[in-house]
Automatic annotation (TrEMBL), chains A, B:
This is N5-carboxyaminoimidazole ribonucleotide synthase. It catalyses: 5-amino-1-(5-phospho-beta-D-ribosyl)imidazole + hydrogencarbonate + ATP = 5-carboxyamino-1-(5-phospho-D-ribosyl)imidazole + ADP + phosphate + 2 H(+). Its EC number is 6.3.4.18. Signal peptide: none annotated. Gene3D superfamilies: 3.40.50.20, ATP-grasp fold, A domain (3.30.1490.20), ATP-grasp fold, B domain (3.30.470.20). ATP binds at K107, K145, E176, D177, W178, V179, E184, N263, E264. Pathway: Purine metabolism; IMP biosynthesis via de novo pathway; 5-amino-1-(5-phospho-D-ribosyl)imidazole-4-carboxylate from 5-amino-1-(5-phospho-D-ribosyl)imidazole (N5-CAIR route): step 1/2. Belongs to the PurK/PurT family.
Amino acid sequence: MKSFYGDLKLGILGGGQLGRMLIQESINFNITTHVLDPDADAPCKDLCNKFVKGSLTDYQTVYEFGKGVDLITIEIEKVNVDALEQLENEGVLVYPQSRVIRLIQDKGVQKQFFKENDIPSSRFQLIQNRTELKNVEFSLPFIQKLRKDGYDGRGVHPVRSTADLDAAFDAPSLIEDWVDFEKELAVIVSRNEDGEIKTFPCVEMEFNPEANLVEFLISPSTLPEEILKKADELAVKIAQDLKIVGVLAVELFLTKDGEILVNELAPRPHNSGHQTIEGNYTSQYEQHLRAIFNLPLGDTRSISNAVMINLLGEKGFEGPAEYEGLNNILKIDGVYVHLYGKKLTKPFRKMGHVTILDDDREKAIEKAKFVQTTIKVKI
Amino acid sequence: MKSFYGDLKLGILGGGQLGRMLIQESINFNITTHVLDPDADAPCKDLCNKFVKGSLTDYQTVYEFGKGVDLITIEIEKVNVDALEQLENEGVLVYPQSRVIRLIQDKGVQKQFFKENDIPSSRFQLIQNRTELKNVEFSLPFIQKLRKDGYDGRGVHPVRSTADLDAAFDAPSLIEDWVDFEKELAVIVSRNEDGEIKTFPCVEMEFNPEANLVEFLISPSTLPEEILKKADELAVKIAQDLKIVGVLAVELFLTKDGEILVNELAPRPHNSGHQTIEGNYTSQYEQHLRAIFNLPLGDTRSISNAVMINLLGEKGFEGPAEYEGLNNILKIDGVYVHLYGKKLTKPFRKMGHVTILDDDREKAIEKAKFVQTTIKVKI
């Protein structure tokens, strides 16, 4: 492999906020970055050495983009995997491997992988279309998920009653048990080419019971040691079973019976690891670079309790974004703002995130609540 | 002032490593960056929204560059201040103010400012040329410094014996007592437009006598509380006296008698504050942005003991840089590498820095010594 003097070209498929934060870290290693994204105004546009506007799912576009770099990585799964496979055959490094992306792209195949490898996950069944939905052996309520292209909550259809059946997706899907979970957890694991594996401490998502939405993420989790150990071991096992190179986000459910079930995987830096930038000795972005360039993995320990809040576009506002309350939240010690460089806001669009550090966990949560009610993305 | 949605244009005079690290932070605030630098391959070149190749000392170039932005800052003092003053008159924000840059650019005026404001500093005398050097009322050894344009050790001439007089600068200079110091210290202080002032904890430095560059910096200093308090109060006083907006590095001598003398000022992020990126709750780069955009200043406390090492080009090597030993140092927990994106190395060129964190100060120093002997910038 070429060395780090600036001629080492990393291609990133996707130019969103995850790519943006990856580039912020890649600067420290003199990595030249090329980015492919269909949006001419993608958050990475002005930060990379070369920006290519183009489709992530078109074979020829991805192939040609890949021929110009030494190593390709992704910040979104929805990419043309056939092109990546061809690039691998021609000697371009692709991390995570095309094989891993292909497996994770299809939620049905992902579930089969869990089953074959004794990875605990909710019961499931695969269907081809809406007609088959009527014959599934699941009692209400259950979940329908599109096998492909779901993202950020899209492609998920909760079936609470027979009335919900009509609005179901008429496409190859996955039917899953409705898991009555106690908490949602996540473990970010990383593996480099040498096979070194490291996990970040398990994090918890705090729900707003009223809105039934993830309100914030708390790092590290304070659940009993045996649960955390189980979550950690599962993440390591999955990274080993997949032989992935890169970081992998493992989203988990802790059920009301104290069982740990794997929900979904993401073979890239993930929303549930943003707080590692300030809250851990190594960030998930640096760790991803270390993994894909086969460098020794970094120290994943937490520096402090951290709470992460997504900055979503306020309901009812669509247009050039303004950040109300920024000044007030920056008055508080341990508040870190990350804006994603998106000019236009719309309801629930991820416009940025805020991480709050405090040695006292309760104080961190209290500060996070203040931040949440103070900063608003409007126009 | 415009708000943070990406249309707020920050102009940076200078495109070196300080600008590069400032841009890494400015990404978090959606700040659009324009950079002016005479070097077409400057470290900031590919990271800013707009790069202008041009002279930093030419009136017209700086003026025209400044007309295209909302706020101008510097990462090097050697810039055309007349142009900045004109831009200020025309309503462009310039932080630090042209007045402050002008004062600090001239080491003679800087010394007079210290004298007028009762800021302890070594005894000095101003001369116009080499001829006047023979008549100075200083006993050997003493120091001759060019009043203008000294940088990174250049422009400093130690006069140890009469033999050194012939090689003295024949230009307006400052003659200073040779301070027999115990330690070199630095305090980074910041002040925003509202007049809020915060200091980072005082750091201690070790110099490479051959290169006359900081080789080894330890944060925070463990000197007696009364000395640290004196250093801190001095930095606050200087920021107040100057009414500077931005960060200001205050370089200090601790004499063998336990006296604190101000050596020099730098009105910008500084080499003695690199370790704040990982070692403090707020980095000097974020603090500079907060100060110049008149945001509340961030928490400056240390997270951990930190040691910073400059990665200098190895003696005897000139050409495209390679980083030997990178893999070995990344194996150690708490090691953070920052490469500056300079393609060509030459002896003592600042090619990057490494920060080492460890809760145990002695261990941090030990790790730093290992890093120092392990990583080499060669070709």
